[in-house]
Design goal:
Layout: E1 2-7, E2 12-19, E3 23-31, H1 33-37, H2 44-66, E4 73-79, H3 83-100, E5 104-108, H4 109-115, E6 128-133, E7 138-145, E8 148-154, H5 160-170, H6 177-186, H7 210-222, H8 228-254, E9 258-262, H9 269-282, E10 285-287, H10 299-308, H11 313-316
Helix pairs in contact: 2-3, 4-10, 5-6, 5-7, 5-8, 6-8, 7-8, 8-9
This protein binds adenosine-5'-triphosphate (ATP), magnesium ion and fe (iii) ion.
Residues 109, 113, 134, 296 line the site of fe (iii) ion.
Main location: cytoplasm
InterPro entries: ATPase_NBD, Gcp-like_dom, KAE1/TsaD, Peptidase_M22_CS, TsaD
Keywords: Acyltransferase, Cytoplasm, Iron, Metal-binding, Transferase, tRNA processing
């Protein structure tokens, strides 16, 4: 049984085929980064239109790569995300489902991210703590199984990826800012700029990144271009240390011994180093998806489809509305529940 996965929640058009028996058979991605670069951020209407242009050829390419002419089920990202962009994926998924007479499932984008480390050969067993760090989310989640998610903490203001992107903008780096800032930080001296570690002195598992952003803005104002790499380094150290400390706290609170990291910021090298070091020092294991599956991709959506189709009869009817801009993760239930 082969599941076609379609992701169009933001600025990546992505398609994959996941086989229940053989695992991932194909994945194709088209990034709109160049399209949005001149505007310094994602323009929703342009994103929708570009998904319309790119989605059908990408589906054809993914099916060809998998050596298939059709799939046995379809999973598409139903939300959260940009409504117009989501509707493109939803409409195409439902149309194909009708044509092929196969079930169609609307997948939660963050569940896709959350379970993406399971796509890797050395997959974590349940239960685990998941750190979801992306452009729109910063979540610590206790995961007992598919659809059994308990939110432990979230951000009170900016998401981590958003903080990376805004800080990159302050430093005059182009869009998308996160990877550019990380590259600049490689050349920076550690410890020259020490920024606040937000909320570390307070109990609990919530985050806040807007104060850090302000501290960086002040430093940038008083510094010259020659200091930018050091500032980037200081920012990155503050963020990754904060994340690492909260992850450890979440593991202690739950008593779990496995940590999973997903979402675009999971591609950050310093974060990986910090968490690897913490795992060695404190005797837990940490799991990352490969870089390509940290940011948006079709494989994670096809994978959730394989886990939830066709057992989830209710979802298989692709409940209305077809797309939702907001969708709290805790509303999900286990397959068939
Ligand atoms: P969401 O999943 O919350 O809807 P999104 O899909 O836009 O948001 P992702 O594609 O998962 O988010 O991740 C994109 C984010 O990851 C951006 O904010 C980007 O700056 C950040 N990012 C990507 N690579 C790196 C890196 N190496 N270091 C830091 N941040 C990074
Ligand atoms: Mg993106
Ligand atoms: Fe995402």
């Amino acid at each position: 049984q082969n599941i076609l996965g379609i992701e169009t929640s933001c600025d990546e058009t992505a398609v994959a085929v996941y086989s229940r028996q053989r695992g991932l058979l194909a994945h194709q991605i088209y990034s709109q980064v160049a399209l949005h670069a001149e505007y310094g951020g994602v323009v929703p209407e342009l994103a929708s239109r570009d998904h319309v242009r790119k989605l059908a050829p990408l589906i054809a390419a993914a099916l060809a790569e998998a050596g298939l002419s059709r799939a046995d089920g379809i999973a598409y990202t139903r939300g959260p995300g940009l409504l117009g962009a989501l509707l493109v994926g939803g409409a195409v998924a439902r149309g194909l489902g009708m044509a092929w007479q196969v079930p169609v499932l609307g997948v939660h984008h963050m569940e896709g991210h959350l379970l993406s480390p399971l796509l890797e050969p050395d997959a974590p067993a349940f239960p685990f703590v998941a750190l979801l760090v992306s452009g729109g989310h910063t979540l610590l989640v206790a995961v007992e199984g598919v659809g059994r998610y308990r939110q432990l903490g979230t951000t009170l203001d900016d998401a981590v990826g958003e903080a990376f992107d805004k800080t990159a903008k302050l430093l005059g780096l182009g869009y998308p800012g996160g990877p550019a800032l990380a590259r600049l930080a490689e050349d920076g001296a550690p410890g020259r700029f020490v920024f606040p570690r937000p909320m570390l002195d307070r109990p609990g598992l919530d985050f806040s990144f807007s104060g850090l952003k302000t501290a960086v803005a002040l430093a940038v104002r008083d510094a010259g271009p020659a200091d930018h790499a050091d500032i980037a380094r200081g920012f990155e150290e503050a963020v990754t240390e904060t994340l690492a400390v909260k992850c450890r706290r979440a593991l202690q609170e739950t008593g779990y011994a496995r940590l999973v990291v997903a979402g675009g910021v999971g591609a950050n090298r310093r974060l990986r180093e910090q968490l690897d070091a913490a795992a060695t020092a404190h005797d837990f294991r940490v799991y990352f998806p490969r870089h390509a599956f940290c940011t948006d991709n079709g494989a994670m959506i096809a994978h959730v489809g394989a886990l939830r189709l066709p057992g989830d009869a209710r979802a298989a009817c692709a409940p209305d509305p077809m797309a939702v801009a907001r969708w709290p993760l805790h509303e999900l239930a286990p397959p068939g529940a």
